[in-house]
């Protein structure tokens, strides 16, 4: 009677969501009798489950199992308090489970499956708007009766019911001789499953920060490093241990569930003021991996907002936020403390000169991974100022791999994440740094200056989850018996560094393969290809339509997301964001990139440049050639592709290139930008006075500056002569000449003279054997470099080549 009244009262108030979405359909068609399992004794949770089963037309938990099970009901509680006033947990197998096991042993033909069910009160933070409600959502603490009442009252409208896959009791029994041992085995398996579910939803039960620090300091590796520090610095053991403790406390996070709930509430208000929306794509990847894998989020790094954005996005989807590796420069007064409570742990920019710090940090990382907490770090090391992905820094990645090899608790999955912004808060700072100004150090004053920008409009933000990389698959690729080796030997395994480099490359490519194409990206790619960043409205609309069609007919990856706006809507959106302006004219309106937006627009172009790289590269071949043979196009692509692929982290291997080139040629032909001869051995561009010829030329401009930069470096090296210049001197000369070209020819692109990009290109020339370093440290080359230069001439028209040669010879 009381249970019926409780169910009816809860039905009036409680609103629930069932996860996964197909759970109800799966149970309705399940062939065996099912018995629900609830983790803790709670008549409220049982009543909600009963209401959910009625609403979803599922077997009722209060009904009895088939007669052979001796009137057992279709549910039991896995644990219960020891007494009414004693909230300690009784972990002994419940009597209902023992009876199930006894019945199955006595009747070999009987089957019954357990369905673990978890009820999370308020674990739907994307719907919360009250700080008080957020304080009452689920955590690892035992829930008192008063707290449960408050949870129902304040969070009952946002309740999550997670229904797991049915588990056969008979398969869990094992070979134990007694009913008691078999019951314990089943109960233990269920407790492990509940722990995994709770870890995936709200994060693991982390001990207090002091406990983790103490555990790290007690490891054998840290104690050995302390002894080494004593010998090298001639200090006492106490002094060395105090130093190790100080370093551990400098590193360690101080995660707080209550603070995270408060920040979700505060950040919702901030994002609503700052952005038009935060879009998260491919969350199903996380759903698939969260329970059974240690998740390592490896996003690209565009802005300081990245630290908050990913945690916020996944928390609103009902998943635990990761511990985030943050640079020590962000450990500011007050701010650093808040970041620690949000899960940030701090890392120095360099580990050089401190062997003790290296050991302490590595063991801290291993400790939080062993406890099942997901982690996050930016594999680029720092924020990209150009909008392109930076070359990966593999230090944290290497420590992650080594930590797993020492303590392989759960399989590790690296989850690449792409951030796409339509405006970045640090935009003006990036332009200044690319133009030669020194990098500003993070400070409270700098933060306060940034606050004034929060009144501006920043458009939408896109968070796309990429294809995961499973660490065990990579390890098996290098050594099928990696898990049979002594864990202490990982430092001496010769394949560790190659494996780390392979993972790093895959992460970068998978980030780019999950790009988001926004209206701002498209406008930047198109208008920056014009001399004055201006186009007639009709031409611009046709070019937008072409690019949208290319993205769909020659898809870069199935994870790339593309704006749903039409070309006309994209123009209106660009005007509303004050990125473009309209100039009225009797012959038709002109659309112009605003002067203050033009330089920063290169940043947003570079975010998606890789998506257009191959069509643009092929279009470049026709910029100065009316027709080209298929074999020449293939050879040109083969010559230039490795350098563009390295710079833009393109997804195709060199062995796939011929097929990719054929696919691009076919896509361009479908859009009438080129046409083949009857036998397909040659391709022609459209007549110069046609709209298609203009579209093809604009498409070529997307990568032409990249090829110009390569040609500039090659021309300067050829001019210097073989064995006459060092790499550092060539890099400096490239930077100065690139800067001079932007001044002479009005290139609105500070990245054109970015020294890092010249360095990466020269490094790749060396890696591919095109150039080499002599014993005197000078760069040497032969006819291979001449062939590279000759192929570049096929792509660059005569005017561009003369401009570059004029600058280099001046």
Provide structural commentary:
The chain has 810 residues and is α/β, with parallel strands linked by helices. It is built from 32 helices and 25 strands. The strands form 6 sheets. Strands 8, 9, 10, 11, 12, 13, 14 and 15 form an 8-stranded mixed β-sheet that branches. α4 packs across α8, α10 (220-233) packs across α11 and α10 (220-233) packs antiparallel against α16. The longest helix has 30 residues, at 691-720. The N and C termini lie far apart (96 Å). The model is unreliable at 124-142 (pLDDT under 50).
Fill in the keyword field for this structure.
8-stranded mixed beta sheet, 810 residues, globular, alpha/beta, single chain, 7-stranded mixed beta sheet, 32 helices
- What is the tally of helical segments? 32
- Percent helix: 40-55%
In terms of structural class, how would the helical and strand content be classed?
alpha/beta
Mean pLDDT, as a whole number? Answer: 85
The total of beta strands comes to 25
Shape: globular
Short description:
With 810 residues, the chain is an alpha/beta fold. It is 52% helix and 13% strand. Strands 8, 9, 10, 11, 12, 13, 14 and 15 form an 8-stranded mixed sheet that branches.
């Amino acid at each position: 009677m009381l249970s019926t009244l409780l169910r009816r009262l809860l039905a009036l108030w409680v609103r629930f969501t069932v996860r996964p979405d197909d759970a109800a359909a799966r149970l309705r068609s399940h062939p065996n009798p099912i018995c629900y399992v609830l983790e803790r004794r709670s008549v409220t949770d049982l009543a909600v489950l009963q209401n959910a089963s009625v609403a979803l037309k599922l077997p009722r938990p209060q009904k009895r199992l088939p007669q052979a099970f001796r009137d057992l009901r279709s549910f039991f509680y896995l644990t219960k308090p020891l007494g009414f006033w004693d909230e300690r947990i009784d972990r002994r197998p419940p009597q209902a489970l023992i009876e199930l096991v006894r019945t199955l042993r006595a009747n070999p033909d009987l089957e019954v499956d357990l369905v673990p069910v978890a009820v999370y009160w308020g674990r739907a933070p994307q719907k919360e708007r009250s700080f008080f409600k957020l304080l009452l959502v689920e955590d690892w603490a035992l829930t008192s009766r008063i707290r449960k009442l408050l949870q129902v009252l304040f969070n009952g409208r946002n309740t999550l019911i997670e229904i797991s896959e049915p588990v056969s009791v008979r398969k869990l029994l094992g070979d134990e001789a007694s009913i008691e041992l078999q019951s314990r085995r089943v109960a233990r398996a269920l407790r492990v499953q509940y722990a995994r579910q709770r870890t995936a939803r709200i994060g693991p039960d982390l001990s207090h920060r002091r406990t983790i620090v103490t555990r790290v300091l007690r490891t054998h590796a840290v104690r050995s490093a302390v002894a080494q520090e004593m010998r090298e610095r001639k200090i006492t053991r106490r002094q060395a241990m105090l130093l190790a403790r100080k370093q551990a406390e400098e590193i360690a996070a101080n995660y707080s569930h209550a603070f995270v709930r408060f920040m979700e509430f505060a950040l919702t208000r901030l994002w609503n003021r700052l952005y038009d929306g935060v879009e998260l794509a491919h969350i199903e990847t996380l759903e698939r991996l969260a329970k059974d894998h240690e998740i390592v989020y490896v996003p690209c790094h565009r802005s300081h907002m990245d630290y908050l954005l990913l945690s916020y996005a996944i928390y609103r989807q009902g998943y635990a936020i990761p511990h985030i590796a943050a640079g020590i420069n962000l450990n500011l007064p007050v701010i650093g403390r808040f970041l620690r409570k949000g899960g940030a742990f701090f890392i120095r920019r360099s580990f050089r000169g401190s062997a003790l710090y290296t050991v302490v940090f590595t063991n801290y990382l291993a400790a939080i991974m062993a406890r099942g907490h997901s982690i996050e770090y930016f594999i680029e090391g720092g924020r990209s100022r150009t909008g392109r992905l930076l070359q990966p820094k593999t230090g944290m990645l290497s420590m992650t791999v080594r930590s797993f090899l020492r303590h392989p608790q759960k399989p590790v999955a690296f989850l690449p994440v792409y951030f796409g912004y339509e405006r970045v808060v640090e935009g003006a700072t990036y332009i200044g740094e690319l133009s030669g100004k020194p990098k500003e150090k993070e400070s409270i004053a700098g933060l306060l200056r940034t606050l004034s920008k929060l009144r501006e409009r920043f458009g939408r933000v896109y968070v796309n989850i990429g294809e995961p990389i499973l660490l065990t698959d990579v390890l098996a690729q290098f050594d099928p018996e990696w898990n049979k080796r002594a864990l202490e030997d990982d430092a001496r395994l010769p394949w560790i560094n190659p494996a780390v480099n392979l993972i790093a490359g895959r992460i970068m490519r998978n980030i780019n393969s999950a790009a988001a194409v926004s209206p701002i990206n498209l406008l930047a790619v198109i208008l920056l290809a014009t001399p004055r960043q201006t186009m007639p409205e009709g031409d611009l609309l046709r070019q937008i339509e072409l690019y949208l069609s290319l993205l769909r007919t020659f898809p870069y990856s199935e994870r790339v997301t593309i704006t749903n706006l039409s070309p006309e809507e994209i123009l209106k959106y660009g005007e509303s964001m004050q990125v473009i302006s309209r100039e009225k004219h009797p012959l038709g309106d002109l659309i112009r990139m605003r002067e203050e937006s033009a330089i920063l627009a290169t940043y947003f172009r570079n975010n998606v440049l890789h998506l257009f790289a191959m069509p643009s590269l092929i279009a470049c071949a026709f910029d100065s050639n009316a027709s080209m043979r298929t074999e020449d196009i293939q050879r040109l692509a083969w010559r230039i592709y490795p350098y563009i692929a390295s710079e833009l982290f393109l997804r195709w291997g060199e062995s796939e290139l011929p097929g990719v080139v054929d696919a691009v040629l076919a896509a361009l032909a479908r859009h009438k930008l080129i046409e083949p001869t009857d036998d397909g051995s040659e391709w022609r561009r459209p007549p110069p006075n046609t709209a298609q010829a203009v579209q093809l030329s604009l498409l070529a401009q997307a990568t032409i500056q990249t090829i110009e930069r390569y040609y500039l470096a090659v021309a300067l090296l050829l001019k210097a002569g073989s064995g006459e210049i060092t790499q550092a001197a060539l890099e400096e000369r490239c930077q100065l000449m690139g800067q001079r070209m932007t001044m002479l020819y009005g290139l609105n692109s500070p990245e054109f003279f970015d020294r890092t990009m010249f360095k990466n290109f020269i490094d790749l020339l060396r890696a591919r054997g095109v150039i080499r370093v002599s014993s005197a440290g000078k760069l040497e080359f032969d006819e291979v470099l001449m062939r590279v230069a000759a192929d570049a001439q096929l792509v660059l028209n005569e005017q561009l080549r003369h401009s570059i040669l004029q600058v280099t010879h001046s």
